[in-house]
Amino acid sequence: MKSNVRDWAEQKSRKYPILHSVYDWGKVAKNTVTLSHPVNSKKDQHDPFFVIGSGRSGNTLLRTMLTKDDSIVIPPESFVLGEVIRKFKMYRFMEWEDLCGVFCSVFERHHGFSMWGIDLQPFYQKAIRLPAEERNLETLLNLFYMHYASVKKPEATRWGDKTPINTFSLGPINQVYKQSQFIHIIRDGRDVVNSYVNAGLYDDVDKAARRWNLSIDIARNFGRKVGHERYHEVHYEDLVRYPEREMRQICSFLGLEFKEDMLDNNKGLDQLGDADQAHHTNLHKPINDSSIGKWKRQMSEPDQVKVQELCSTRLQQLQYQ
Fold it and tell me: Transport among the record's keywords (predicted)?
């Protein structure tokens, strides 16, 4: 195998969808009948948790607080988890070694994966050697996140994911991890839109407002389906004004013990991998409520009117004045 997993895996992932050779046609026809790697584990039930909701809502702040618990590891954003799940289902008929290669390539090809700061070669070698009964997506993803833990935080025993875009893949994620929990962090949509535009993540308020509205609808509808034991809402404004109260509730939800140093969010940031991003500058400050209501000070009057109109229904539902 080539020394670089990405080059090798990309070659494999191109080969199978295109299926140039007669050998591949025969192999695919045979494997679709005799080989189909399952999504779920038959014996192990993993219980990760996912911080969901719109971006620019305090997701990364919550990550810094939760990872003060030695047992918890949360990598930088994964970006492609939904795609990984779709690709696994699409190519589940592949030989396991090839499927693991595709799995690695999807993660590695995204530019944001460099922030994880890990080599996937050791993970790949472990993955292809999994016993036949453990060759499923649930176990593979668990191995992947715990590989990150083994490099960055060996004492961790449970992993979480903090990727806002996962909000649009909650159904597939829930299918893989049926015991998982979800923390929906909600922030005033006007501040979210203002932050998106100021950070250069959206170039106009219309797109940013649509993203916030859609994230709210999807996450809350999902929460109603899975119930309060697996879904918990926290408002950004409450988290920064009453951090101890809110973190105690979140810890209770996750089955964790609250620790005072969870409130020291701006310590140990060098271990996070992405804290130096320009749009995470506030992480270097102690928890404070100075970002609440920034839209009133920073957004033009025409944009304020437009965002108010675009977000009014959800703002009222969420009791934002």
Answer: no
Please state, in angstroms and rounded to a whole number, the distance separating the CA atoms of residues 160 and 174: 14
Do the Cβ atoms of 240 and 58 come closer than 8 Å?
A: yes
At what angle are helices 81-90 and 96-109 packed, to 10 degrees?
A: 150
**Residues 119/79, Cβ–Cβ less than 8 Å:** no
pTM: 0.89
Query: What's the Cα-to-Cα distance from 204 to each of 152, 174, 193, rounded to whole Å?
Result: 37, 32, 9
* Partners of 158 in beta bridges: 72
Q: Which of 256, 260, 280 shows the shortest CA–CA distance to 270?
A: 280
Q: How many residues does the chain have?
A: 321
Please enumerate in sequence order all residues whose Cβ is within 8 A of that of 228, keeping only pairs 6 or more positions apart, or say none.
none
Nearest to 115 by CA among 282, 284, 283, 272: 272
Tell me the average pLDDT across 280-291: 82
Residue 23 has pLDDT above 70, yes or no: no
Identity at 93, one-letter amino acid code: F
Give the tens place of pLDDT for each residue, 131-159: 999 999 999 999 999 999 999 999 999 99
H-state helical runs in the chain: 5-18, 22-34, 59-66, 81-90, 96-109, 120-128, 137-152, 170-176, 189-198, 205-226, 236-241, 243-254, 294-298, 301-317
Residues 6+ apart with CB under 8 A from 115: 76, 77, 273, 274
